[in-house]
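WARN retry 2 of 3 for item q-0093 after timeout on previous attempt; input resubmitted unchanged.
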Amino acid sequence: MRVNDRIRVREVRVVGADGKQVGVLPTKQALEMAKARGLDLVEVSANARPPVCRICDFGKYKYEQAKKEKEQKKNKTVVKIKEIQLRPFTDPHDYQYKLQHAIDFLCEDMKVKVFLRFRGRENAHKEYGFETIKKFIDELTPYGKPDTQPRKAGRGITVMLAPLPPSKRADNPNPKKHHHEEAPVEVAASEDDNGASLNNAFSDLELPEEKQA
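OK item q-0093 returned
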């Protein structure tokens, strides 16, 4: 951030101390205007053409900016992501166990990344994998919805599910708290982050071998 004599462009767009537009002025004239008021000329938008400068108390301006940044960090949303791993022919008991875990996570406002891994000859019959993952998504419909359609990723299929708002989400049929073995992956994100970017963030992830629950 450039201030006063460090602003070396020929002209600048000036915002007065009262926040009103003054207009485009030669930089020298803008500096004289600021000094006449006992204030500083602060460049607030260097990429604009011409750069935008504000007449203000630089010390006070820095304090206000630091305060805003602190408030923004405080209000930043933390997205928690849990991963569920499946196989094309997952054992029915294991399938139900993992389904309940996915319901638990969604009901706790976490996102769920589902990854179905193929091994050996299973790669020749990927349609079974898509059927399994579609069934899994359908059974989670009362609790969450996929950000995107299931897609191939490395040696498997992946999809990210986001929890429905509490007002639209069904109650957890088994609200008993489970001990979740994996720690959630925490991703700082703003509220307008889209699901596609989260899916892309995991596209190159080297996934561990599946652990039977």
